[in-house]
User: Which sequence fits this backbone?
């Protein structure tokens, strides 16, 4: 099984340039990755370049800290859709999660989902910040609010995806929503382990390296 269809080819570095995004899009079309995951400012460029390629255009909202005004997240979502985004990766309000204020978390997700009625909203829980029991409550909350996918991490927080968290999110999603493992995934063995644990997407800045490792293994 070619893993490319599970991979979000990601470039979210703060100093990402137009040229780097063009190259990322070329690679995504060539490998047929599931999506590119890019900064909001490059959505129109990527949408134009990837038109008709089958590659989704994912961008981020409230990224990476999650603490902007909820109305800002809604506005970011609307603008991203106008520009051609076909998937939204949003960060939950992490302070609200720390306070166990699950209703605030759910309300923000519901507001973004409402602003993006025909587009999957992938909700980033930044799982490294929280104990498993809290992650479980957060995952249940955001699913109820309409999340299409549970995503572990931004890649900019205190830790990335772990096997334990991927398993936990897959258990909560129970086949009714996707699970995106992201943050610190650099090699094919890790990627493969997460897919087997129930991840349906892998968000990574190292997709080409992962594909090379997969190819060298399968064609040995
Ligand atoms: O949203 C996806 C992450 O930013 C990817 O994290 P990474 O740069 O550690 O691969």
Assistant:
């Amino acid at each position: 099984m070619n893993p490319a269809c599970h991979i979000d080819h990601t470039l979210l570095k703060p100093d990402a340039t137009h040229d780097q995004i063009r190259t990322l899009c070329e690679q995504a079309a060539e490998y047929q990755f599931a999506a590119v995951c890019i900064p909001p400012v490059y959505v129109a460029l990527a949408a134009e370049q990837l038109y008709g390629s089958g590659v989704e255009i994912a961008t981020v909202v409230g990224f990476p800290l999650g603490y902007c005004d909820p109305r800002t997240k809604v506005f970011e979502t609307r603008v991203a859709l106008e520009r051609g985004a076909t998937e939204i990766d949003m960060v939950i309000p992490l302070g609200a999660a720390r306070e166990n204020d699950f209703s605030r978390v759910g309300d923000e997700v519901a507001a973004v989902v409402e602003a993006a009625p025909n587009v999957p909203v992938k909700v980033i829980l930044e799982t490294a910040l929280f104990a498993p029991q809290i992650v479980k409550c957060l995952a249940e909350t955001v699913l109820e609010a309409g999340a299409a996918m549970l995503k572990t991490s931004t890649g900019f927080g205190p830790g990335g995806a772990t096997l334990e968290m991927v398993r936990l999110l897959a258990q909560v999603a129970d086949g009714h929503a996707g699970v995106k493992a992201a943050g610190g995934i650099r090699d094919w063995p890790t990627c493969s382990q997460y897919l087997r644990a129930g991840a349906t997407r892998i968000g990574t800045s190292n997709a080409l390296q992962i594909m090379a490792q997969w190819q060298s293994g399968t064609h040995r």
Remarks:
- The first strand starts at residue 7 and ends at 10.
